[in-house]
Predict the structure.
Amino acid sequence: MLRNIITTACVLIIALTIVSGCATTLPDNTNRHATQAYTNTADTYFGRQIADDLAAHPDKSGFILLASGLDAFVARAVLAHRAEKSIDAQYYLFHDDLTGKLFLDQLMKAADRGVRVRLLVDDMDLEGKDLGAAALDRHPNMAVRFFNPFSRESGRLSQFVTRLGSVTRRMHNKSFTVDNQVTILGGRNIGDEYFEAQPDLAFADLDVMAIGPAVARVSASFDKYWNSELAYPATTIAKRHPTDAEAEEGLAAFNAFIARQVDSTYMQALRDSDLANRMRADRLEFYWGNADVVYDQPEKILHEKDKTEYHLTPQLEPYFDGVEKELLLFSPYFVPGKEGTAFLTDLAGKGARVRILTNSLSSTDVSIVHSGYMKYRETLLRSGVELYELNKRLTREERKLKKGQEESSKASLHTKSFVFDREKVFIGSLNLDPRAIVENTEIGVVILSADMAREMSTWFDENIEKVAFRLELKKGKSGSERILWHGFENGQPRTFTVEPYTSLWRRFTAGFLRLLPIESQL
């Protein structure tokens, strides 16, 4: 969504001509009330449930991978259902669809029974939702804030021009924390396309549920964003508040919708899935290890891009620099740039095995980002870096359906994870592209667990060529080079000489886009 808007030069030029001088004022936000995560939560349901596990693993955090979309939904729903003191939810996108409503229902029910709910959502996807958010914000136990909001005094498209460099920088963080005892981090936003299990690629999307010291660090990050001058209460940003009649009518319609979902796949999973039953029976098995929660400071958006003291990526540099034998990268949007390409080629040159899984042109729904990646493929392959692109075909109808749904996981790789020397794992919201590294804010966790790292690496070893194309740089007799894509089609091996499952027009468009000077926005 955002990438498509800000990288379409002709639209920006036309918009600039049309809307020059439009108002972009924001309401005063100095009266927002600062709050902090609760710390006296050891006697909550989850505090009691995990006490023995934490005592048996002092100073360590416990982790469970959530690769299935249904499991990722169930985990959040069970946590919300059992919350006793607080829920802190921070997301880039929060869709008004089935799972969005089911998730919101759990938050509302928690607030109704006295749980303090803080919901922080980036304003990128909230157009037209002010009234409903303001109604939620009026609940005595629920507060809703919009991060880096657009002005309600002029159209959003115009502000992509008049506020270029401001509204084009977004909060991409994703976290969900209950009672400051359990948290979920990863790649998923709230919406149907993020909670559907991918049948042929277990890591199409990935979250991790954590307990232990890592949770307090996630809560500290949330507090910084919640109390930031960029976080506006929904009742402050909304131009109009709902009347009592409107609020009652909206709640009645919402409750009627929820009542009709009693037999939905998601509600059945919440009642009967293996994960739900194990969570209720306290039979979860964790990976244990030290953890380093890393995140951008919210002030990153307010400062020049060279102010790296506010950035997440310097916190990850020691892990990348420490790689000796192997680096695995899962990144749906992969645009390494000159500096990243130099690092990866140098690492491969030192004898480390570097393998990267990203989307193919046929599986991505943002061709402009793929065009930025294309220009680095030959250099990476020439140096010995191994590239894999998801062997998943999006039909024209699927691309049309997904248009505007940035980073949809329904038919595309969405996992953001790195494995360092089969000893450490990063899981979070960070794509390896300029927009994530320089423009937006992100969060993730580095988990020092050889068991988890080995499991993910073994999955890659055993499955990658079944689910992805392996790229080869082939040199002809004349010395010219071309890329071949080796994969499977209908269970049979096949080699492609052009981007698999793409039309001439789509390949031409991607090739043309790579010529535009827009890499910093990808």
Summary: Confidence is low (pLDDT under 50) at residues 13-21, 197-203, 402-410. The first strand starts at residue 61 and ends at 66. The two ends are 12 Å apart (CA to CA).
